[in-house]
């Protein structure tokens, strides 16, 4: 046997220690990674948390703009109601802060329970960029005036910690514009669909929607604005709707713009929810105030503003006017500006009576014969020039005994009640108070070639504004000095007044306005039933108009702007030249027969119509020109 081997076997190499070292390295790496990841995750969480917080704050600030907008609209309504209370002055800071303050803040819509704490809510007058106690340069006839509203509030949300405070400011512009500085102004929807080319030379505005179209051409040379849009389609209540005659329309000053309402003077909305008859819409402008009720329109009502009021009764019994004045049967009552009655036997009443006459007018559109009070403007102007229409009745016991007054008044006694009373300011109110369905009445304006020129020191107001709650009829050339050059020849741009005569500021404001030529009286067209036999002569009218219309009603077209002036003759081949301003504020209440197509009671003239640019000069506006009021929303900004 061989002896056993002497080689020593080496022990097997252990793998336990290296494995433990590797596992420790891995755990350490995992730990480091976990720490890093935890840090990253914490950073992400912090970032997300901060982002959420920032986003929430941003959202709340965004929400704040809606809150501010709500508050501003509330302030707008309060300020608008305030400025409408008095048209002769602007509200001062005591008045504006009385209606806009923390007590009137919109805490109901945005309450403390929702986390809102109102810090400031007020409206103040603003002048030359600074807050003022009251505007110092207010002119009730024109201008633009600023107000400022501040809205500040905190919004508390538990998850956000500190409250979010926001402050906003917004300006309001109160703009006053003489109504006759518009070529065309409609308080409701306006329709214009002429059959011949039509040019509008001044600004146009509708507080409703404008419907305009033509198969010829229409050119607007100045700005056109509206509240509810503009379309080339017929009005939905036009029986020709839907459709359009065409859209050959040009806007020289750019497309029509949408804007806010331009409110006429007085209460602009009809209120039939109470017994007060003095707050029934814009027609109050021409109506006699009811003395039995408070009059919210007293500051703008032309009956109140007129220097001389003539109340007429053409019935066989005494009649009481809404104003409380009682007019004897078949007579006229003359009233001064403050409502004092001129006694019927007084020399002044006798003298004024010479300026009026009784008449009749056959209106073939209305299919009615109207009893008219005929106003002889020529005699009014002659009386003015003779000194018989002073701004103020002398405060002495007698009229002057010299040539400064007409012979009929010279050295005549003046009743104590009349001494010193205001009599003439260029606004003449004339109305037959007995109008009714069985007794239709109107005012007919005759001999109106020349108007008072303001040259009398005792009565410096130039021009004439005739106002009536009845329909008005103008006979022949008006405020043109006679028959002007434009009435003859082919030059449509020829002078609209005779040489030597200066066109005076003038307006006719009535329930409706109808134009007839001088032939109406001279040829006695009242008795001519065939319209083709009622032939006019070329006529020129230089006056602004405020008149009612008969709106489109589904069965009848209103006639549109092109038929705003009502006609009763066969004007084919004849020319009607017009310089003025066309204003519609209300629907007619007395002359209510709808317009009918040509060939029934009239044929259309060659319309040579122009906006009277003299009205752009405040010194050349007609007496008593109504003023449009518009509170416009201005810029707003977030301060905090």
Provide a descriptive summary of the structure in words:
- It contains 6 helices and 34 strands.
- The protein has helices spanning 16-83, 93-99, 302-305, 347-353, 377-385, 519-522; strands at 116-127, 130-131, 143-155, 164-178, 184-186, 190-192, 198-200, 204-206, 210-212, 214-220, 224-226, 230-231, 247-251, 257-258, 308-313, 319-320, 326-327, 331-335, 341-342, 356-363, 368-376, 427-432, 441-446, 464-467, 471-475, 506-510, 513-516, 539-542, 544-547, 566-567, 575-580, 582-584, 606-611, 627-638.
- It has a 12-stranded mixed beta sheet. A 6-stranded mixed beta sheet has the order 20-21-23-25-27-30.
- β16 and β17 (326-327) form a beta hairpin.
- Mean pLDDT is 90; it is low at 1-16.
Sequence-ordered SSE layout with sheet pairings:
Elements: H1 16-83, H2 93-99, E1 116-127, E2 130-131, E3 143-155, E4 164-178, E5 184-186, E6 190-192, E7 198-200, E8 204-206, E9 210-212, E10 214-220, E11 224-226, E12 230-231, E13 247-251, E14 257-258, H3 302-305, E15 308-313, E16 319-320, E17 326-327, E18 331-335, E19 341-342, H4 347-353, E20 356-363, E21 368-376, H5 377-385, E22 427-432, E23 441-446, E24 464-467, E25 471-475, E26 506-510, E27 513-516, H6 519-522, E28 539-542, E29 544-547, E30 566-567, E31 575-580, E32 582-584, E33 606-611, E34 627-638
Parallel strand pairs: 5-8, 5-32, 6-9, 7-10, 8-11, 9-12, 10-13, 11-14, 15-22, 21-23, 22-24, 23-25, 24-26, 25-27, 26-29, 27-30, 28-31, 29-32, 31-33
Antiparallel strand pairs: 1-2, 1-3, 3-4, 4-34, 15-18, 16-17, 18-19, 20-21
